[in-house]
Amino acid sequence: MPVLLTALGVGGATVIGALLGFLFKKPSHKFQDVILSFAAGVMLAAAVFGLIMPSLEFGGSFAVLITIGGLFCGAVCLNLIDRLVPHLHKMTGVGEEAHPEATAKLNKVLLFVIAIAIHNLPEGIAAGVSFGTGDLGQALTVAGGIALQNIPEGMVIIAPMIAGGISRRRTFLIALMTGVVEVIGTLIGYFAVSISTVILPFALAFAGGTMLYVISDEMIPETHAHGNEREATYSLLVGFAVMMAFDYFLG
After folding, report:
1. Does 25 map to a domain?
2. Within a 10 A sphere around the Cβ of 221, how many other Cβ atoms?
3. What span, in angstroms and rounded, lies between the C-alpha atoms of 237 and 45?
4. d(CA 39, CA 94)
5. Quick check: helix, strand or coil at residue 166?
6. Is residue 79 domain-resident?
7. How do the pLDDT tens digits run along the chain, 251 residues long?
8. What string of DSSP letters covers 179-245?
9. Residue 77 counted as domain residue
10. In angstroms, rounded to a whole number, what is the distance separating the alpha carbons of residues 30 and 250?
11. Which of 91, 114, 197, 204 lies at 20 to 30 Å from 160 by C-alpha?
């Protein structure tokens, strides 16, 4: 029962963040750049402290090789998604004819959302594994840290999608699905501890690689393309600092 409630809580934190994200209506271009940069900082800290470092910790004798391999596999995977699925916007209900200027940007936003969803799975597995070990206190600490991290992540995926022309209803459904992924991951980790502890280091690094790819290839170039470079840079640092503080005080 505790693991099920925790799974719902961890996934629900993303939904809470998404609902908070709807408070920002019709954001300006500058505001979008600042929010997306904050998201990049959040993702960067999550990748480093929540994914890459734990991958090294759990990787055993071959930790460095496993983590490096996972990083590059994650980056290559997202690069292939970028190349093989050039019209991601079609899943959002936004027509290319009605919004020709927005579709390219929207594809980048959806890559960002996909990276969030991918990284939620091993995070959920990590939470589930901690319950499977039998240490309830440690498990709740891990799950609490993941849940707190998911709130700003849920917030920052809303504004870019709405700005790209996605309806509020569909935006919420997409955000909800990223939370569902984490619930699934938590249950997988709990019921398959022996298996997940083997694949967890690689899965963590894989997710970290997808996030680093999106940050470098999509998010930073986008936020530095409209004359808001300085604001975007400081916003990235703020996002990184917030998530670093979460990790430090909850670790």
Report:
1. no
2. 10
3. 10
4. 23
5. coil
6. yes
7. 566 776 777 777 877 877 877 776 666 778 778 877 887 887 788 788 877 888 898 888 899 999 999 999 988 987 887 676 555 545 545 544 445 555 566 666 777 777 777 767 777 776 776 666 565 665 666 666 677 667 766 777 777 777 667 778 888 888 888 888 888 887 877 776 666 667 778 888 887 888 788 788 877 887 888 888 999 999 999 989 988 887 777 66
8. HHHHHHHHHHHHHTHHHHHHHHHHHHHHHHHHHHHHIIIIIHHHHTSSS-HHHHHHHHHHHHHHHHH
9. yes
10. 32
11. 204
The residue type of 51 is L
The residue count of the chain comes to 251
Of residues 169, 170, 213, 206, the one with CA closest to residue 185? 206
- Can you give the residue range of the structural domain that contains 124? 2-20+31-250
Q: How far apart are CA 137 and CA 162, in angstroms?
A: 39
Surface-to-core class of residue 245, CB atoms within 10 Å of its CB (0-12 exposed, 13-18 middle, 19+ buried): exposed
Q: Which of 205, 33, 11 is nearest to 109 (CA)?
A: 33
For the chain, the domain total comes to 1
At a CB cut-off of 8 Å and minimum separation 6, what does 198 contact? none
Query: Do residues 232 and 34 make contact, with C-beta atoms less than 8 angstroms apart?
Result: yes
State the Cα–Cα distance between residues 36 and 218, nearest whole angstrom: 10
Residue showing tokens 């980790």 = 189
**Residues 84/89/91/94 CA torsion (nearest 10 deg):** -160
Is 52 part of any domain? yes
And the tokens for 17? Answer: 């963040």
